[in-house]
Amino acid sequence: MTQPPSDAGGSSAGLRKFRFGAGGEGNKDEGGARKFVKLAQTAEEYGYDTFAVPDHLGNQVGPLAALGALTQATSTIRLATSVLANGWRHPALLAKEANTIDVLSKGRLELGIGAGWMKEEFDKAGIEFESPGVRIRRLDEALTVLDGLMRGETVNFDGEFYQINGLEGSPRPRQGPRPPIAVGGGGPKMLALAAKHADIISVAPGTTTDGKMKLSDMTIAKTAERVDRIREAAGDRFDDLELNWTIAVIVITDDRVATAEMALKALEQGYPPNIAHDTEFTVDDVLTSPYIAIGSFDEIADQIREVRRRTTMSYVGVFPTQMDAFAPVLAQLKGE
Question: Which of 148, 202, 276, 290 has CA atoms 20 to 30 A from the CA of 172?
């Protein structure tokens, strides 16, 4: 199978070294598409390992075209999609785009792909939003097709959704045997699918029907349970997998407890809007959650070390607007 990037090797404690991912959308809040390239260059200067572009039909750049530009505008940072909606692209076409980006970037692509989850965007585009079971089966087939074509192999595949007849993957990728594939999920079926196919798994909280992250899934205990599901599903593959998570909230403060108490009040009032307040949280829940980082730079660094110790997750992502705030923490943890 494809090995995770070489800088993600095991540490002296038997855990993987940290990697750090930033990202950007090229939207109005970030200064628009014209400043998108500069954002990626800044992430590279800070020392982030990866720069990822999400996949939405709203106010953002097109991810594949944007990564094509970044292959020439950056030199060391890895380039990722986080994550592509499978239902919008045929895997035969996506494999060609992905391998082209890998060649142009001299082997820096990480292809993130998922089942697609924003029904509103599918509806606006006139693309059928299939049931969760159908989307997962479709993604399972797409990942099989991508695996072969991204290796430069000749693929024959006769599935429920895709039929490939003697198609050779080209151009051949720079990375061997193919660029790493990342799959994210929070539910048992998606985690099992990721354990079957992926090199990198993004361990996410479950979401509500309108796409909000469930607060009940954001505790360290629930996160460890999801990792255990991956371990069980992956079997012998588990040690080869790199586990990722994205911090949803970063607050730099000298008083963690007081700020956590304020965060609880904000959650009760519906902020941030991308988190569903579906359970009661305690201050300790806030301060130990992998998805919430509150404290001084030193305290947040220690919190992230503890998350890795308890879950084996080592690949840390941050949202575009918090790339600057997190940079001092990255500097402390880089190389550990």
Answer: 202
